[in-house]
Specification:
Blueprint (H helix, E strand, L loop, with lengths): L19 E2 L2 E2 H15 L4 E8 L10 E2 L1 E8 L4 E8 L1 E2 L7 E4 L3 E2 L15 H19 L4 E7 L10 E7 L7 E6 L5 E5 L6
Antiparallel strand pairs: 1-7, 2-4, 3-5, 3-10, 5-6, 6-8, 6-9, 10-11, 11-12, 12-13
């Protein structure tokens, strides 16, 4: 459970009624969470980053209204999840960075920040060319989910964006992987994939 934070009320132009703020890219959200994680533990390193959805808020163009990042402190032997919400809706969470409880480190290796050279927006554009654009044209209600980690492709020290299209991550008919250090296309899987 993530701790709540103070609600911010300024509204942005072009948002839906009752909505304030705009979706952001993974790197923008990461910078907010990384600063908070370093206040928690000066040696904090990222382990994963994933997008979250809010009803009625677009997740296109590599942007999302909610991002969660898991960070590891080797010195403390702990891990902690941080959440950044950039859009407030009447029934949604407040706009801010919040933090979850400190948990024992499960041993999953973190990655170096230097691997985050390609943002989620660039990964999304590449995924669109490998079946995403065609899929979204046929299924306008589909969401796009963004995950950054090394586990998806067993990349060792490398890190990849996983762009998933569908109603949820578990049943996504298209998953595209893009290397976050070089920005190169790695693979596309699922019935809607274009190689």
């Amino acid at each position: 459970m993530l701790a709540a934070c103070t609600h911010q009320t300024p509204s942005s132009a072009g948002t839906a009624p009752g909505q304030s703020g705009e979706p952001v890219t993974g790197r923008e959200a990461f910078q907010q969470m990384f600063a908070a994680a370093r206040l928690w533990a000066p040696d904090a390193q990222p382990q994963s980053l994933e997008s979250g959805n809010l009803d009625g808020v677009s997740t296109l163009d590599g942007k999302a209204p909610v991002w969660r990042g898991r960070f590891v402190s080797r010195a403390r032997r702990e891990q902690r999840t941080f959440q950044y919400v950039s859009v407030h809706t009447p029934d949604g969470p407040d706009k801010c960075v919040s933090k979850g409880p400190e948990l024992s480190w499960d041993g999953s290796e973190p990655f170096d920040v230097a691997f985050i050279k390609t943002d989620s927006s660039a990964a999304f554009q590449l995924a669109q060319k490998h079946g995403g654009a065609r899929l979204l044209k046929a299924h306008k209600n589909y969401h796009v989910f963004y995950d950054l980690n090394r586990e998806a492709l067993n990349l060792g020290q490398g890190v990849a964006w996983q762009i998933s299209y569908g109603e949820n991550r578990a049943t996504a008919p298209l998953i595209v992987h893009v290397a976050s250090d070089s920005g190169r296309f790695l693979d596309a899987t699922g019935p809607a994939a274009i190689h």
